[in-house]
Amino acid sequence: MTMIQLYGSPLSGNTHKVRMALAFLGLPWDERLTDAAARRSDSFAALTPMRQIPLFVDGAFTLRDSQAILAFLAARHRPGDWDGAAPEERGEIAVWLSHAANEIANGPATLRLARKFDVPIAEDHAAAITARILPVVEAHLERRDWLVGDRLTIADLAASPYLALVEDAGIDAAAWPAIHAWTHRIAALPDFPAMPGWPAERVAIEGAA
Fold first, then answer.
1. What is the rounded CA–CA span in Å between residue 88 and residue 191?
2. 79 phi and psi, to 5 degrees?
3. Which fold would CATH assign to domain 87-208?
4. Where do the domains of the chain lie?
5. Alpha-carbon separation of residue 158 from 45, 47, 97, 100, 164 (angstroms)
6. Which of 64, 78, 74, 60 has its CA nearest to residue 4?
7. Which residues are bridge partners to 58 per DSSP?
């Protein structure tokens, strides 16, 4: 049996989406640290033409894009549970996968690039997108524990990392209490993998209190 390989970075929220899925599924994997220099290499381009992380490799099967990898893992290992039990749930999950790839990626995740990694961005544009998406997520989570249905789904896995790391983007997490509680709820789940900026140990203690 081949070992799953996950090409990524410890500080990448997109990598952490897949890392969480693999950990919660109990699937062993070999994590290949892939920095910017490695992503520019011809050998990495041969694996994925976009030269982006995360990259999922399982034997001869390779898949890029964190949302696509989550969809694949759900369909293979938790069909109907993680990817929706009915057409309505599947549609709602698709909305959050889209938000993760668009508004969250271009808003708070992009602001984090500027604040934490000193990457030049169109800051006014990223701030405007952030100001639109955070109230939407906050209002949605004020009425529920999970983004879709009554359980964790790939919607939560896709949307949560960069919202858990908003302090890295210069955003006060306390200003968004429903989002803050939700990301704590995820980190308190059994087998949650640690990530810098999202301290599982402290969160797990708070969740048990």
1. 29
2. -65, 135
3. Glutathione S-transferase Yfyf (Class Pi); Chain A, domain 2 (1.20.1050)
4. 4-77, 87-208
5. 25, 23, 6, 6, 11
6. 60
7. 61
DSSP strand E in the chain: where? 4-8, 29-33, 55-58, 61-64
What class does CATH assign to 4-77?
A: alpha beta
Q: What is the pTM of this model?
A: 0.92
The neighbour count for residue 141, using CB atoms within 10 Å, is 21
Distance CA 44, CA 63 (A): 13
Contacts of 181 (CB under 8 A, 6+ apart): 141
Cα–Cα distances in angstroms (integers) from residue 170 to residues 65, 111, 115, 174, in the given order = 26, 8, 7, 12
Largest CA distance in the chain: 50
pLDDT by residue (tens digit) across 41-97? 998 999 999 999 999 999 999 999 999 999 999 999 999 999 999 999 999 999 999
CA distance 184 to 170: 19
CB 152 within 8 A of CB 82: yes
Backbone torsions φ then ψ of 64, nearest 5 degrees: -110, 165
| Burial (CB count <10 Å: 0-12, 13-18, 19+), residue 161 | buried
Q: What is the mean pLDDT of the chain?
A: 93
Name the token pair of 116. Answer: 């934490």
Beta-carbon count within 10 A of 167 CB: 15
